[in-house]
Amino acid sequence: MIEQARSSRIERNGNSVFLAVAGEFTCYAESGGPWGTAGHRHPAWTLTLSADGPLTAVDDSGAKVQAAGILVPPHHFHTTTGEIAATTLWIDPHHLRVPGAPRIHALDSTQVRRLLAAITTDFDPDPLRHSLRETFGDPPPADPRITYALTATEDELQMAPRTLDLSPRRLRQLAQAHFHGPLAPLRRWHRLREAGLQLPYQPAAEVAATSGFADQPHLIRTSMAFCGRTPASSPAAANYRPPR
């Protein structure tokens, strides 16, 4: 897992985009609007914040939430729209705990301002962790075995049952309990966030290859499935070219 923050701020075509990854957090902040996502399911918690206007999220049951901040649980189908700039944080599922049945949660403007203030220019994860604890309470205790399985290389993952002294079945059960779903989608998300850091600076086909995707269309499908947007929808992806 990337604990040392990596971030960049990009100004293009009148838009400002902030991209950052640190530890369990991924951040994407874009100026301007309006904007929106197609329906999607993300393997991490999705926290979208706007200090200047309401956001709207709708799930597959038709439940609609409009608020300054929207929190969506892992694997919960939804769309999100906003009229102005917003910041989206994705939080690995085992680092946040919200009681109750899975649903879209609304955050008020005070909570949103506190969380936005914790996103520093160098994307230090500690202030953000502190602010999330203030807002949602303490996260569940981390299991080092499941953290290892998330960050291991493919070869290490093949050996994980022996390395961790766990049967493959028990490893799947641990992943389900900690990640609210299978291990594979979250590992794929970590590859996608790595690709997102590279897309402003390298051709998308090269990014797909170096980030562990089969090809550029595989990268696009994963972005749509997890984020409801293609890489081309971001003004940060100046080097992105859709495949022909």
UniProtKB/TrEMBL annotation:
Gene Ontology molecular function: any one: sequence-specific DNA binding
Membrane-traversing stretches: none
Domain HTH araC/xylS-type: 163-232
InterPro entries for this protein: HTH_AraC
Protein name: Helix-turn-helix protein
